[in-house]
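Audit log entry. Action: structure prediction of a protein-small molecule complex. Ligand: zinc ion. The ligand was supplied as SMILES and no pocket hint was given, so placement is left entirely to the predictor. Protonation state taken as written. Sequence taken verbatim from the request; no trimming, no tag removal. Recorded inputs:
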Amino acid sequence: MATKQRKIPAPDANPETKPFWDAAAEGKLLIKTCRACGQTHYYPRALCPFCLSDQTEWTVAKGTGTIYSYSVMRRAEVPYAIAYVTLDEGPSMMTNLVQCDFDTLKIGQRVKIAFTPTEGGPPVPTFTTA
Ligand SMILES: [Zn+2]
């Protein structure tokens, strides 16, 4: 296992996303559910991206999903994998895959949340193989 850690800058928290980062600090992944149309979405927005309702509420996601697509950046100083992960709740999120063997990744593979620390900010949601 590589000992080199890729440095991740602190995320930019604003009033709209503060609950998300507060939950991340506690190891919880939040998404939003729309009370008007029932759809869940990510990244969290004040207005539902499906019906534009402002009746959205924070929901704790299970933190499990599948790899929809991924790409391994092998030429970086510390190689890393970016991916779209489809959460079991429905929304897809762009993220990084961490603490796993990049050579054995597969589309459709099961993954689970593994928050990664940042420099001086809350951890960011990343995923590892389940
Ligand atoms: Zn909606």
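Audit: result stored. The two ends are 17 Å apart (CA to CA). Residues 69 and 77 are 22 Å apart (CA to CA).
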